[in-house]
Amino acid sequence: MEKAKAQINYDNPVISIRNLEKSFGDYHVLRGIDLDLFQGENLVVLGRSGTGKSVLIKLISGLLYPDSGSIDVLGNDVLTLDTRSLQELRIRIGFSFQNSALYDSMTVRKNLEFPLVRNKKGITRKEIDQSVESVLDAVSLSQTINQMPSELSGGQRKRIGIARTLILNPEIMLYDEPTAGLDPITCIEINELINEVQQRYHTSSIIITHDLTCAKMTGDRIAMLLDGQFQRVGNFNEVFATSDERVKPFYDYNFIQ
Ligand SMILES: Nc1ncnc2c1ncn2[C@@H]1O[C@H](COP(=O)(O)OP(=O)(O)OP(=O)(O)O)[C@@H](O)[C@H]1O
């Protein structure tokens, strides 16, 4: 269940975060976050509920503004980008959110075409068809092309959601709790898909989760968010080789394959 070694370019961070601070009223959620995501890397961000994982993703994608610190994404200073440049940058990032639901009234094909037609002006019918076929093949669901989302299982819907994100060829993937609400076997299939996406699309990914099986299977590196900072960063065994009483229960109460 250990993750196979990936090709990672440690000279090329695609996301660089320095000394990031974010409070909501009196609640100091992020207290000086430093983080690099390297080209080709799967980085898992682990943390209990309410520790600020989603806030971090929103800051990276420019949906929230920090109190201080810097965020560089694909060579862009996110905090100084105008709306248009931010939109252009977001197209280079694939968001796989828990609630990124499919459109129930559209077939799988139409769901997949939607981001293409919206974001790629002048794309031809042939290019659309090729892209749809290619991402469906990537998530091993070619046979569902004419089905409605209601005819798919939870795991299949999750895969189609990932395919819809991949269709724009993102350089960075942000997965927010990719295995939430799925049975253990389907979780493992989604973890395997995350690794296949890394290899096939050469993406760099941040995977937010509190599922340790997911962390172990998909993470080249794991960063544990505790009390507003990344207190432990390393591979799975390094992160959990500690007697830190804030970390141990996290491990003890998770089911590890
Ligand atoms: N827009 C907001 N206004 C006020 N408080 C917020 C806002 N967004 C997040 N928070 C607070 O910041 C904290 C961190 O929230 P966040 O959603 O990042 O947690 P999380 O680590 O993703 O948790 P979970 O695993 O449950 O999704 C929470 O206490 C939340 O209430």
From TrEMBL:
Domain ABC transporter: 15-252
Sample GO molecular function, one term: ATP binding
PROSITE patterns for the chain: ABC_TRANSPORTER_1, ABC_TRANSPORTER_2
Keyword field: ATP-binding, Nucleotide-binding, Transport
Top-level taxon of origin: Bacteria
UniProt protein name: ABC transporter ATP-binding protein
